[in-house]
Specification:
This protein is of the alpha/beta class. The chain is built from 10 helices and 12 strands. It is globular, with a radius of gyration of 19 Å.
Length: 282
Amino acid sequence: MKLTGLEVRPPMTRTADSVRTSFVVEPKPVPERTPSVISIDRLSVLYGTHVAVKEVSMEIAERRVTAIIGPSGCGKSTLLRSINRMNDFIAGIGFQGAIRFRGRDIRDPGYDPIDLRRSVGMVFQKPNPFPKSIYRNVAWGAAINGYRGDLTQLVEDALKKAALWEEVKDKLSQSALALSGGQQQRLCIARAIALQPEVLLMDEPCSALDPIATARIEDLIDKLKAQYTVVLVTHNMQQAGRVSDYTAFMYMGELIEMDATGRIFTNPQVRKTQDYITGRFG
């Protein structure tokens, strides 16, 4: 099942002549395996009677980038938002199985979801800065959680880690809403970093951005894994191929295959994975 020439085709909406654009994924070495920081064990997520995620099991390696790919509606975002219990806000949602963060079941009755979200941050699809200054956007979460250190230094450090400091250091008092879309998304990443998490969940963080802003976010993701575990949901297979160490392919709520990214894109073991990444469906 090896894909010769490393050529894979992304899923695209079919035009009248069913033309698809191909792309080439560069071969990537298999990353050195690190300990798992998150263990997902036969997780099912239900909206009423609809099963959105079905008995998914996977290990998320520490300080690596794990991409989750698959067609729209396959359960990618539902799975991602389950990792820090963002789905708790949805009425009628049900869970079976377990997610363990550092060995502890996150749905344990004694586990405060607010504490979980301090350790497992989230960056959403569309930038969502607060209607406040740049400084207060970054400082807000740490301040309301009782941060006792130097808040100004924390803001500077977070903005530097988000590759935004040089662009905003002279206008920290200005409204975050005046920033460009790409800057706003990096600001949201800085806001998440300021809470000093261990894990960053990113739900299609580049889908609303132009190619230049997307490239900056991708470069940032590559740097962030030196300090953080990153889980990235993306519909863009080129992006998954560029930035991730591991890739999980989901289809109709099920995990079809998960492996090192280089192997998933060049030598998938499951026919359905091959069919998806070569554009036969999706």
